[in-house]
Amino acid sequence: MFAAIGLVVLIAMVFGGFILAGGSIGPILAALPLEFMMIGGAALGAILIGNSMHEIKLLGGGLGTVFKGPRYTHQDHLDAIALTSKLMKLMRSEGAVGLESHVTDPESSTIFGEYPRLQKDKVVRDLICDPLTLMVVSSGTLDTHAVEEVIDNAIKTQLHEMEEPTHTIQSLADAFPALGIVAAVLGVIKTMGAINEPPEILGKMIGGALVGTFLGVLLAYGMTGPMASRLKQINAHDQQLYHSIKQVIVASLHGHPQPLVLEAARSGLPPAHRPKLTDLMDMMRGR
Predict the structure, then answer these.
(1) pTM, to two decimals
(2) 50: left (phi > 0), else alpha (psi -120 to 50), else beta?
(3) For 9-38, what is the mean pLDDT?
(4) What average pLDDT does range 31-35 have in this prediction?
(5) What is the pLDDT of residue 286?
(6) What average pLDDT does the chain have?
(7) Of 227, 209, 195, 204, nearest to 59 (Cα)?
(8) Residue pair 222/177 in contact by the 8 Å Cβ criterion
């Protein structure tokens, strides 16, 4: 939501200030469609050249994330800790056999069913179920550090995929000023071909060429650059949920008491989503 508001403010302030300063918006609007076609088309072509269809789909999802905001809410962070804690508590009380039906078929699990948003989230399901399935098939004899390494690799892979759109958007931000210069140079070439025209016409042609430079800089530093930064912030926010799941699993496998398990997961959450330890303990007791 803030991204959309920011775009409106950006456009209103830039063009509004230009108009209030006595500038004429007409020449800009006249040149804008073709300049945008050249700059935007070149950027689109560069994306197609440098990315596979998978990365292009990730880019589309990343742009959507910029406007939608974080994937996980405050309640999702709490639910992830509670869900994983309940599964580990079940494993401790009933052993790996009691856990088997929940991690091999999470869509039918009564424990997962208590948290329908997370139950539908494939990333969360896999992050929880894959290492716990390893514990089930090994009858709980796997070394805790080996399980932790498996979880770390899964998180690393997920974060790499989440960060791909950020890199692409940032690359666009870096390229837009140069693409704006390309459009401006083409405008100057066109102007030089009409050097015999009167100054009024040449002035409009030069002004139209400069719109390309203006547009490239605006797209880079006013739009795509901030979008890349915002997406990076959102990814950092969402990845904390994955780390809290890991902390619950690892701390539980080390045999720590539940308050310490909950504290290990809670302490890694962003301050805005970090509940009190007593609230988490009450939630686990069903209060």
Answers:
(1) 0.85
(2) alpha
(3) 90
(4) 88
(5) 64
(6) 88
(7) 227
(8) no
- The CA-CA-CA angle for residues 120, 83, 111, to 5°, reads 70
DSSP symbols for the chain: -HHHHHHHHHHHHHHHHHHHTT--HHHHHHHHHHHHHHHHHHHHHHHHHH--HHHHHHHHHHHHHHHH--SS-HHHHHHHHHHHHHHHHHHHHHHHHHHHHHHH-GGG-HHHHTSHHHHT-HHHHHHHHHHHHHHHHTTT-S-HHHHHHHHHHHHHHHHHHHHHHHHHHHHHHHHHHHHHHHHHHHHHHHHHTTTTS-HHHHHHHHHHHHHHHHHHHIIIIIIIHHHHHHHHHHHHHHHHHHHHHHHHHHHHHTT--HHHHHHHHHTTS-GGG---HHHHHHHHTT-
Unique residue bearing structure tokens 């809290």: 244
Please give the average per-residue pLDDT across 241-269, as a whole number.
87
From 280, 284, 160, 212, select the one nearest 38 (Cα to Cα).
Answer: 212
Q: What is the pLDDT of residue 140?
A: 63
Going from N- to C-terminal start, the domains of the chain cover 28-287
Flag whether pLDDT at 287 surpasses 70: no
**pLDDT for 265 beyond 90:** no
Q: Is the pLDDT of residue 192 over 60?
A: yes
Q: How far apart are CA 36 and CA 89, in angstroms?
A: 58
